[in-house]
Amino acid sequence: MGRAFRQRPVHLAGKPRTIRDSLGLSQNELIARLDLADEIYQDYISAYERGIREPPLPILLKYARLAGICVEVLIDDEIKLPSRLPIVPKHSPSRRTVYAH
């Protein structure tokens, strides 16, 4: 049995790199700002930025929140990043609801 084709955003690698560059952060500084020091290493960020690895959804959410954008902007190839980052989001996240497992 083969693996099914999975669509991947074409520009997903470039957008996190643009966010990091716009904020003037090194890869290690980015990891600290994303509060991921205990979870990922610099080579993960490098692999995300080169398109070798695809960031997991929770990490994409952290990138989006850091930049003040919606996750959709990162994922949708037809939406460009704002020219200035970070921005003040037009929406504010609703209060989080804790779901019981």
Structure in a nutshell:
This protein has 101 residues and is mainly alpha-helical.
Record the SSE blueprint:
Layout: H1 14-22, H2 27-33, H3 42-49, H4 57-67, H5 71-75
Q: How many H/I helices?
A: 5
What quaternary form is this?
single chain
Distance between the termini: 33 Å
Instruction: Kindly estimate the percentage of residues that lie in beta strands according to DSSP.
Output: under 5%
Characterize the biggest β-sheet: none
Silhouette: globular
Helical residues, percent: 25-40%
Number of domains: 1
List segments where confidence is low: pLDDT < 50 over at least 5 consecutive residues: none
Structural class: mainly alpha
Using only CA atoms, what is the Rg?
15 Å
Helices and strands, in order, run as HHHHH
Q: Report the top-level CATH class.
A: Mainly Alpha
The CATH homologous superfamily is called: lambda repressor-like DNA-binding domains
Q: Total strand count, please?
A: 0
Q: Per CATH, what is the topology?
A: 434 Repressor (Amino-terminal Domain)
Q: Specify the CATH architecture.
A: Orthogonal Bundle
Average the pLDDT over all residues and give the rounded result: 88
